[in-house]
Amino acid sequence: MRIRKFLFVIMFAAIGFAVVSCDMTTVISPRIDVSRQLVRTNLSGVCDTIMLDDSLNIGDTVRMGLLLNGYYDPLVSFVASADESKVHLSLNWPDTLGGITPESDPAHAKLIFIPDSVSACLTTLSYVPVEAGSHQINLTLTSSAKAPYSQGALQFNIAVRKP
Q1: 28 in the Ramachandran plot: left (φ > 0), alpha (ψ -120 to 50) or beta?
Q2: pLDDT tens digit string along 17-75?
Q3: Greater model confidence, 3 or 102
Q4: Is residue 16 within a helix (H) or strand (E), and if so which, with residue range?
Q5: Is the pTM of this model over 0.85?
Q6: How would you classify residue 104: left for phi > 0, otherwise alpha for psi between -120 and 50, otherwise beta?
Q7: DSSP assignment letter at 100
Q8: Are the C-beta atoms of residues 159 and 134 closer than 8 Å to each other?
Q9: DSSP-assigned letter for residue 150
Q10: Residue 117's CB: how many other CB atoms inside 10 A?
Q11: pLDDT one-digit tens code per residue, 100-112
Q12: Which of 17, 54, 70, 89 maximizes the CB count within 10 A of its CB?
């Protein structure tokens, strides 16, 4: 009887090893972390700090700190998008910082990273609402991680009123 139990345990362990993948690679989706406080500058030049869900006036400029993290995998791209007729977006990425390809367009919130060069970075998203209403802003970060872990996304709405 003991031999049968022993053989059963050995067979169970062998089947378990056969089913489990030997790929020990850690895969984590890239993440976008947003600053809790944003800096707003109104048309008169007055600066203050606001929260993400605070209302804005047309023409306010809001600067939002972002941490883009690919963890174990290098970043491929980051794009912020919105209806361009309602909200103007841009990213702070000085030329001296490097790490992005010529196809990048920080003035229109698009970064394409040089392959295998950037795993994490800090940047600032600036947005200026030009029309009243509720507007959605989408943030999409892509890394070289295997699908379905290669993309991280975040979206938020801003409420804009006429001054």
Answers
A1: beta
A2: 555 556 556 778 999 999 989 999 999 999 999 999 999 999 999 999 999 999 999 99
A3: 102
A4: helix 2-19
A5: no
A6: beta
A7: B
A8: yes
A9: S
A10: 12
A11: 999 999 999 999 9
A12: 70
